[in-house]
Write a structure and sequence with these properties.
With 195 residues, the protein is an alpha+beta fold. It has helices at residues 12-30, 38-44, 181-184, and strands spanning 45-56, 62-65, 75-84, 90-98, 103-105, 116-118, 125-126, 130-134, 140-144, 152-160, 165-174. It has a single domain, classed as Sandwich (Immunoglobulin-like). It is globular and about 60 Å long.
Length: 195
């Protein structure tokens, strides 16, 4: 299942929050390799996603505020809280935040900082992502992948004890709001070798 597939953001963060909640939920459930089986697993793990706009007050301090609507240029912070509601440890848990088209992940804003990223939904590596290109002389050269190409973030949460929670977050810049639902369905780029 491609966890990057989302539905349309029409206006405001309610729609975006629902889209991200669905993606984060699917990522948590389907990337959890050794967790409680079947429907028990789905009931055991809950994921709460919030989105806040990042603004600066008159003193220069950052504040996270509710944003009924967002627009290009806004900086938003997504936080996903994974809770184990069962009486057993969930093992092999991976947290995930998609980066839909129209949003750009902000460099080194992920918490915890041990985030993995991908441009194609298949190859994950530590930030910053690098790729090999040929320079003018035909020699291989390692260059950073632009942050606008990042499509998903993932954390290796590992074991989540009974009744415990784990929190992941990242900031994203709103570049453009999509014009149609199809624009938010992330079509993975051609896979590249990321080392």
């Amino acid at each position: 299942m491609n966890i990057d597939k989302t539905s349309r953001v029409l206006s405001g963060n309610r729609r975006i929050t629902r889209v991200f909640f669905l993606c984060v939920f699917l990522a948590g459930v389907f990337s959890n390799s050794n967790a409680i089986a079947g429907t028990q697993q789905k009931e055991a793990l809950t994921i709460e996603l919030t989105m806040k706009r990042v603004v600066t007050d008159v003193k220069g301090n950052e504040i996270l505020e509710e944003a009924p609507r967002i627009k290009p240029g806004d900086l938003v912070e997504y936080t996903a809280v994974y809770r184990n509601r069962s009486k057993q440890t969930i093992s092999g848990l991976k947290g995930s935040l998609p980066v839909p088209l129209g949003l750009e992940y902000v460099k080194r804003s992920a918490q915890p900082s041990s985030v993995l990223a991908t441009t194609d939904g298949a190859n994950y590596a530590a930030e910053p992502l690098l790729r090999t290109i040929k320079d003018k002389a035909g020699r291989d050269q390692r260059v950073e992948v632009p942050y606008s190409d990042y499509r998903n973030l993932r954390w290796e949460i590992g074991d989540l004890g009974a009744g415990k929670k784990s929190v992941v977050s990242a900031r994203m810049r709103v570049i453009a709001l999509p014009k149609s639902p199809e624009e938010l369905v992330v079509k993975p780029a051609t896979p590249v070798t990321i080392k």
